[in-house]
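== Folding task for one protein ==

=== Format: two labelled lines per protein ===

==== Paired sequence and structure tokens ====
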Amino acid sequence: MALIVEKYGGTSVGSIERIMAVADRVMETFNAGNQVIVVLSAMAGETDRLISLAREVSPNPDPREMDVLISTGEQVSIALLSITLQSRGYLAKSFTGSQVSVHTDSVHNKARIEKIDTQNIQQALDKGQIVVVAGFQGKDNEGDITTLGRGGSDTSAVALAAAMKADECRIYTDVDGVYTADPRIVPDARRMACISYEEMLEMASLGSKVLQIRSVEFANKYKVPLRVLSSFNPGDGTLIIDEDEEMEQA
């Protein structure tokens, strides 16, 4: 039995139909005999909508209150996916960042993860439940909600995979892997089956937006095997691993 972390971004959960499609994928992974932790972003456009609401009432909203506000987007996603899975006969349980709990520093809107308590997640997994976690958020030492900054759900997923010693962390996006160049600009760009952490970090620093750079740094530090896949097109995606250990074999 493998432990798989699957992360789905905003476009992947952008509608009820897409949330149902995510449920199908999660069920497939679970039915293959794996334990599954799912990390979700807010539905596409929701975080921007919430930020706009705050700006309508104040030009300079308090960072702490902004974290309280924008963290609600992920809570909607995790509840809807858990309800969907339950309606299909699966045991599923959602957790906010605080409930996990993901401990961060107190820098609101761009907090950094300091540690993750794994007890609640492990108990749920031991009961045969699919665990659904809100990405992008945690709590500080005062118990206040914090958020990790744009793209923070990728970091949440990799950090959870590291803390739980997962066998693989799968990042589902709107692209089917890492390409040698932007395929929208370079028509003959090819998808790479395997790439090292260092190469991915270099691509991210040069502007590649496939993965948030902090998540790749986390994966490199804790040697978490990362795989980038498409939520919309089946395929093996791109595996990101340590060059010294496995790249030559791959």
The mean pLDDT is 92. Residues 3-247 form a domain with the Carbamate kinase fold (CATH 3.40.1160.10). Residues 176 and 233 are 7 Å apart (CA to CA).
